[in-house]
Amino acid sequence: MHHFHKAMLAGCAVALALSSAARAEDAKGPPGPFPPWQHGDNNDATPRGLPFTVPEVDVLADFHGSLDDPKLVLFVGGNYFFAMAPLVKAFEASHPEYKGRIFWETIPPGLLVKQIEAGGTVTVGNMTFTVKPDAYFAGLKKVEALIHEGKLVGPAVPYVTNTLTIMVPKDNPAGMKGLSDLGKPGIRLAMPNPEFEGIARQIKMSLAKAGGKDLETAVYDTKVKDGSTILTHIHHRQTPLFLMQGRAQAGVTWQSEALFQQQVGNPIGHVDIPDADNATAVYAGAEVKGAAHPEAAKAWLAFIRSPDALQIFERYGFKPYRGG
Length: 324
Hints:
The protein is of the alpha+beta class. It has 10 helices and 13 strands. The strands form 3 sheets. Strands 1, 2, 3, 6, 7, 10, 11, 12 and 13 form a 9-stranded mixed β-sheet that branches. The longest helix has 28 residues, at 199-226. It starts with a helix and ends with a strand. The relative contact order is 0.17.
């Protein structure tokens, strides 16, 4: 993964700069990668045909692989999009019959449910397509609720846990020290939208632990109204991008997302949240009712909590689920 860091960072300076001079420079040569962690690994399709990705104009960053007769379709809550390529590679090593035939999406889990309810149909820009999932992955409580509703087939399979952090630009120029600083009027935030993103529920709990209802209200009401909190639709893409663009000075994400951005060399840092104020998420999955490839779904669900898979998750700070 590290061999492309220098080239990617050089491209990031072009792709993310907001000045007109940088924009003019960008127009003179090939554009940098966009998003600045998109480097081709998250596509299981072979062959790929005509390469047509135009930074900031035509980029389908959360849809991976080929729709041409996939043998396994995974709907994955987007906050570990970066782990999917190595997970798929490891899965295919032991299940070669699926090599090049896996399609996966990494949009927020609530939106994935809406896509399931729409019969698998989704529209991105001018493209509308239908793809029905074999397995769905989100927080354990959400998965259990969908099993109860009859959308998923039990049992739920929990596999890893994750905690929150405050993502900041490299070197933390705003001097963020903790959650209480998020409520300051002069601090610009990028925060997950409670309407779309399940992480917002845990963030609100952490804000209340750290500063009571007043801090939660400041971040998710007062600052939204005055424009100093930007609510994201897809925080695992928007938050690091907004920080690198200078549109925000901080945002709460899962710690794995900040660790990934640091590992690939992007100018991102993080501020730890104490255990007493933090929230822990349990990640789980289940087969989708009426899945076209139920045996493939079962194979992935068995793999996702295997030692090989857990070793990949641990690279990004996830911990194995140790519950009952």
